[in-house]
Amino acid sequence: MARALRRLQVLHKHWVSVEQNGTISRSLTNASNGHKHYETRRDFAHFLTIQTRWMDNDIYGHVNNVVYYSFFDTVINKYMIDYCHFDLENSEAIAVAVESKCSFKESISFPEQIDCGLRAGKIGRTSVRWEVGIFKSPQTPRKENTSLPTENLKAIAVGHFVHVFVDRKSRKPIPIPRDLLVGIERIAVRKSEEGHVQKE
Fold first, then answer.
1. Domain spanning 2-199: which CATH class is it, in words?
2. Contact assessment for residue 156 and residue 105, using Cβ atoms and an 8 Å cutoff
3. Closest to 71 in 3D by CA, of 105, 7, 140, 118
4. Is there a contact between 149 and 42 (Cβ–Cβ < 8 Å)?
5. What is the pLDDT of residues 41-93, one digit of tens each?
6. Of the residues 3, 37, 89, 94, which has the maximum number of CB atoms within 10 A of its CB?
C-alpha cells in the first residue's frame, strides 16, 4: 500500500514537472482572455450516453458528487477501448490517474440519462489531459433552454482527468503508444482567444 502511494506521488510530481516546464509537446488548450464561456455540446468531440442508477442518488435526492468521477472514468476508458485499441488486460501501457477536477453547474437525479462529452485538451509525450462535459440527454425534460438547438445545450458539470501512461510492469512513465495517440488526437481540440473550442 505504501509503495503504491509513493508511486502515485512520483507520477503526480512527473505530471506537475511537465506542466511547469512547458514540455507538453501538443498543448492544445490556450488561455482565455477573460471572456466568460459556457461549455456546450458543440465543444466536445465524442459522446457516451449513461443511465443513472437508483444507487447514484444520495440523501438529498440528487446524484452524489463522487459519482461524476465514475462517469469520467467510464467515458474515458470506453473511448480508449473502442477507438484507441486499448486492451485492459494485455496492453503494454496502462493509464494512471494523477489529477482530476469537477465543477458542478446543475444537479441531476435518477432516473435521468446523461450524455458525457469528451475531448483531449492537452497531449504530452507521456500524458493526456481529458476534458469532460456532463449533459442531460436530449430526451430529459428541462426547466430552461428548451428552445435551444441540441448542440447549444449547456453542461451541467465540467471537469478534467489527467492520465500518465506507464509500463504495466515497472509502473514507470513511457511515451503514449502510437495506437493510443492516434485515437486521442482524433478528439483533440484547441481554444480560441475568446475561449471557444475549435475541433481539430
1. alpha beta
2. yes
3. 118
4. no
5. 999 999 999 999 999 999 999 999 999 999 999 999 999 999 999 999 999 99
6. 94
In angstroms, rounded to a whole number, what is the distance separating the alpha carbons of residues 14 and 146? Answer: 45
Q: Where are the domains of the chain?
A: 2-199
Q: Which residue has the higher pLDDT, 189 or 156?
A: 156
Nearest alpha-carbon partner for 50 in 31, 68, 37: 68
Those residues whose C-beta lies under 8 Å from the C-beta of residue 84, and which sit 6 or more positions away, are 179, 180, 182, 183, 184
Residue pair 12/82 in contact by the 8 Å Cβ criterion: no
Rounded to an integer, the average pLDDT of 8-14 is 48
Q: Which cell is 61 given?
A: 435526492
3-state percent helix, strand, coil for the chain, nearest multiple of 5: 30, 30, 40
Whole-prediction pTM value?
A: 0.75
Name the least confident of 16-25, 54-63, 127-136, 174-183. Answer: 16-25
* Grid cell in block for residue 38: 459556457
User: In 3D, which of 126, 98, 165, 96 has the Cα closest to residue 23?
Assistant: 126
H or E stretch covering 23: none
